[in-house]
Amino acid sequence: MRHIPTIAGRELGAFFVSPVAYVVLSLYALLAGFFFLSSILQFNEIVIRLQQFQAIEQLQAVNLNDYVISPFLGVMSVVLLFLVPGITMGLFAAEKANGTDELLLTSPITIWDIVLGKYLAAAAFVLLMVALLGLYPGILFLYGDPEIGKTTAGMLALLLTGLLYAAIGAFASSVTANQIIAFVLSFVLLLLLLMLSVIADLGAAGGALGATGTVAELLRYLSTNDHFETMVRGLVDTADLAYYGAMIGSFLILAKAAVESVRWR
Amino acid sequence: MIEARGLTKRYGEIRAVDDVSFEIGAGEVVGFLGPNGAGKTTTMRMLTGYLPPTDGTALVAGHDIFEEPLAARRAIGYLPETPPVYPEMDVQGYLRFAARLRDVPRARLREAVDRALERCRLTEVRRRVIGALSKGYRQRVGLAQAIVHTPPVLILDEPTVGLDPTQIREIRELISNLASSTEGGERHTVILSTHILPEVEAICRRVILIHQGRKVVDAPLAELTAEGQSLEEIFARETARDVVEEAAA
Ligand SMILES: Nc1ncnc2c1ncn2[C@@H]1O[C@H](COP(=O)(O)OP(=O)(O)O)[C@@H](O)[C@H]1O
Ligand SMILES: [Mg+2]
């Protein structure tokens, strides 16, 4: 475990000398700015319209958290779906393509050192992205009065989602030596994960998954969707935290097994 | 220092390495010879812990590669067939990383890196990015990472392949120096794989020849060539046979 910082440090250094990190960060900032502005404008429009119609009751129900921050974080979680695979695609695949896996695997370090070190680097990058994003809702605190608790819960939801995406991306990178394949594979896995709840809904509606609904329940549980929604609404439940922890752990265990399997062939 | 006990690696039906045993004492410099595809790289990968043997085991500096893999690996400096370098790192940053992976204490990092740079004559390019270096320099960086933690055992897989004659001479000199230098009173034990015979004659005292995954010759170089035969003749004779067919018959 001593070597985790060694591995993580080199990986982070590599992020910032390659253009990938800057491309990902600028795309992210750009998209965040765009979506933030559009949710603010939309919010304005709603307020103006409600004022025109003198809908006092509805006007009171409109607030920054539900009408700006939550939808904004929701959109940004979808943006992460595209960007995190770009960060993680090289984690293991590049080592194999470079032949540097031979350095790591013949050094007196464990495979967990390698996997956790690399994951930590990707996680730090995700943390940086989410922290930068925090500036936007931060602006709202200057001009309005969003609820701090709800906003924090939403940011936490986004962070955990990003961390889960990074674990899945790390796993995808561990099964191939080709970064493009790693990108596509993690993207497909992430999409599938998001869609599980949609599949569950369709299946439940059509009765395709059996009348019991337990399969649908399971699919819905596995999907990130509901957990994210719950947290963004301000409800931080240990069950949801456990979901993220268990999913991240599972994909890291899979990645470790994949790195180890070089040796079984 | 190195003891291979019945090392075997099977890929499906192919026996890349078949029941290879040998013992190499401290300070020996051994040429690991064989034509392309003989199983040299596979054997070295098993010794260094990159590949698990299908059968058999090995001891490095007294540590079994299965039972004490980390201790065994700590005793080895390994230069794979392609130098395992990160093109985006600078030379000294890379060596520092390699030294940390091999448990060089923090207080001795700078000294270890400086020494490796000096011995591989890389001091002038220490701040250069590895991806911008010539092939010969990259090979030297590969060698520097193998010695940065001053391991008792050096395992070098075709260290001069793909280099021009000047670079080949430089790398050979470097290896000869490493082989004859003492490290804390003890000499490096070196295994060097190659299919270039003059290389063996220039550097090694002992020859292990493998062919089709099996060990066919294991003798001191002086003894082999004592009867007036050249190493080339011995190599040609031994690798012309089909040892797998012979064993089956
Ligand atoms: N991953 C692999 N899968 C199948 N066969 C392999 C693999 N790696 C090596 N081999 C085979 O094992 C034999 C020995 O290869 P190698 O150890 O690389 O030889 P050398 O280094 O002496 O040229 C070759 O016939 C090679 O084709
Ligand atoms: Mg080879």
Q: Which blocks of ≥5 consecutive residues of chain B have pLDDT under 50?
A: none
Widest beta sheet: strand line-up of chain B: 6-7-10-3-11-12
- The domain tally of chain A reads 1
Main β-sheet of chain A: number of strands, strand sense, barrel status? Answer: none
Distance between the termini of chain B: 36 Å
Q: What percentage of residues of chain A falls in helices of 4 or more residues?
A: over 70%
Ions and ligands: adenosine-5'-diphosphate, magnesium ion
Radius of gyration of chain A: 21 Å
Largest interface: A-B, 24 and 31 residues
How many angstroms does the end-to-end distance of chain A come to? 26 Å
| Oligomerization category of the chains in this entry | heterodimer
Q: What is the average of the pLDDT values of chain B?
A: 90
Shape verdict of chain A: globular
| Percent of residues in β-strands of chain B | 25-35%
Describe the structure.
The complex is a heterodimer of chains A (265) and B (249). In chain A, 41% of the residues are buried. Chain A is globular. Chain A is 83% helix and 0% strand. In chain A, helix 4 crosses helix 10, helix 7 (111-133) crosses helix 13 and helix 9 packs parallel to helix 13 (238-260). Chain A is an all-alpha fold. Chain B is of the alpha/beta class. Chain B has a six-stranded mixed β-sheet with strand order 6-7-10-3-11-12, sandwiched between helices. In chain B, a hairpin with a 2-residue loop joins strand 4 and strand 5 (63-64). The model of chain B has no long low-confidence stretch (mean pLDDT 90). Chains A and B meet through helix 1 and helix 6 of A and helix 2 and helix 3 of B. The complex binds adenosine-5'-diphosphate and magnesium ion. The site of adenosine-5'-diphosphate has 11 residues of chain B, from strand 2 and helix 1.
